[in-house]
Design brief:
Largest sheet: 6 strands, mixed
CATH class of the largest domain: Alpha Beta
CATH topology of the largest domain: Nucleotidyltransferase, domain 5
Structural class: alpha+beta
Radius of gyration: 29 Å
Helix content: 40-55%
CATH architecture of the largest domain: 2-Layer Sandwich
Distance between the termini: 74 Å
CATH superfamily of the largest domain: Ribonuclease H-like superfamily/Ribonuclease H
Number of strands: 12
Oligomer: single chain
């Protein structure tokens, strides 16, 4: 008995020690990643490594590696490539290394076989006053690369250069995202919708609820396609099986967007509850027209689908309103086909009588809907200022962008350049910003879709615009309501 007890104690202690070791390993990986990020934030660190017990010259310097580097430094160097790959510089005073720091999307210049004789050159060494010295830049990197640099990086700004952690939309480093790199779980489309911890749990719960066998690791498309092959119109269960993949995908993507845009992180239970609510709303329509089997009844009870008759929803009417006397109204919209995908923007300026003053559509290349909204607003405000309008009512159907302007804060790092440009443009004019439903923003929506289709157009008179857009503007001027879907 004593022997068995001592074995049990030793086994338990061994288990505890094992998990202590695992916990220590996880923390050390995160600490190393954090240290690597901090080291990289030192201006010109690549060419001037600090002299310390951890000192290890980088490959870029061409110096030999010490014979006996510390174990901590080995751990830092191990995660450094991943940290380096997922970070970039945002310039203000241009103190970062011209050659070795990652400030171009195509990577550091030293990795692109460019012959620059001065390894200690800083970015600001290629600036004249607030802009690039184009002749010097072309001499250093050639015309093609110089054009990429000038188009990508704007003018000098006040403050110090900032290093951006690309895995978080706010640009801040976090150990949780660093650990995702270490264990190979960087956010991808499949990770968000299928293979991540929350996605996996939701799919398992859905499989259990509807009696669909849960398969192990497989792609999102394979999993969804398998569900669709089980969908049948002949029964409630078959119809729900057909509905769930779309609802799950929608709500998992919505969770991801909330976490990135609003910093709200929903739990697995919250996501599943929302899926059940929407499934219940959709199933209510199906219940009225189909015969229910015993299995169907049990299923509907499990999802709390009420057996009630159809109730009509109240009709909501929305309409475009004219601006105040002496003001102009700027309606803007951004469109992204795929989000992200080919994107464009549109804007319409109208006076207090509702007459169109100007309209514009522009393509913006590949980007998100939020990027398109910001760039459309920049174009619209620029046009207002060029035409001498100092009192502008801005309407936009993106609640996210309206909240950013209301709170004077955009936390999406890859939109900061557009954000700063917009704030600078808004200085010196009187403006209001308000959210408008899409149904009352149809003119700007029409032009934004043109832009996303690659069409650049400028309209300075209503007779120049397409017939459909002309009809929209005239009905909005008359105050005709639109039905809110």
């Amino acid at each position: 008995m004593t022997t068995m007890r001592s074995r049990l104690i030793r086994t338990t202690l061994g288990f505890v020690e094992f998990w202590k070791a695992v916990s220590h390993f996880l923390k050390s990986c995160q600490v190393c990643a954090k240290t690597a990020m901090n080291l990289q934030s030192i201006p010109n660190f690549w060419i001037s490594p600090p002299t310390s017990p951890l000192n290890l010259p980088f490959e870029q310097t061409g110096k030999p590696i010490p014979e006996h580097p510390t174990s901590l430094w080995k751990s830092i160097v191990k995660v450094l490539p991943e940290v380096y790959e997922n970070s970039k510089w945002k310039f203000k005073d241009g103190s970062a290394s011209f050659l070795y720091d990652r400030w171009l999307a195509s990577g550091p210049l030293n990795e692109q076989a460019l012959e620059v004789t001065n390894p200690r050159m800083k970015v600001r060494d290629c600036w004249i006053e607030d802009g690039w010295d184009l002749a010097h830049l072309q001499e250093l990197v050639g015309e093609v690369k110089a054009e990429e640099i000038v188009l990508t990086i704007g003018a000098r700004k006040e403050g110090s250069d900032i290093i951006i952690w690309k895995l978080n939309d706010n640009g801040d480093f976090s150990t949780s995202s660093a650990w995702d790199i270490v264990r190979g779980q960087v956010e991808t489309f499949d990770y968000v919708l299928n293979s991540g911890d929350i996605a996996t749990t939701v799919w398992k719960w859905a499989s259990l609820a509807l009696g669909v066998h849960y398969m192990g690791p497989q792609s999102w498309w394979t999993r969804v396609n398998r569900w669709f092959t089980r969908a049948k119109n002949a029964s409630q269960r078959g119809i729900l099986i057909g509905l769930l993949p779309s609802l799950i995908t929608w709500k998992l993507w919505g969770r991801r967007c909330k976490a990135h845009m609003e910093e709200i992180r929903e739990s697995t239970e919250e996501v599943w509850l929302k899926i059940k609510v929407w499934l219940r709303l959709l199933a209510e329509e199906i219940v009225k027209v189909s015969k229910l089997s015993k299995i169907d009844n049990e299923l509907l009870k499990a999802f709390e689908v009420p057996m009630s008759s159809k109730t009509s929803k109240p009709t909501l009417f929305v309409s475009w309103r004219k601006p105040a006397d002496g003001w102009v109204k700027l309606n803007i919209d951004g469109s992204s086909l795929g989000n992200p995908g080919p994107c464009g923007g549109g804007e319409v300026i109208r006076d207090h009588h509702g007459n169109m003053i100007a309209g514009f559509s522009a393509p913006y290349g590949f980007g998100s809907s939020n990027e398109a909204e910001l760039r459309a607003m920049i174009n619209g405000v620029e046009l207002c200022k060029e035409m001498g309008f100092q009192q502008v009512e801005i309407e936009c159907d993106s609640a996210v962008v309206v909240n950013w302007l209301t709170n004077r804060s955009c936390r999406i790092w890859y939109l900061w350049d557009y954000w700063e440009e917009l704030l600078k443009l808004l200085d010196g004019i009187s403006f209001t910003i308000s959210h408008q439903n899409r149904e009352a923003n149809r003119a700007a929506d029409f032009l934004a879709r043109q832009g996303a289709d690659g069409i650049t157009m400028s309209y300075m008179h209503i007779d120049q615009i397409p017939n459909l857009l002309r009809g929209i503007i005239r009905t909005e001027k008359l105050g005709f309501p639109n039905i809110r879907q």
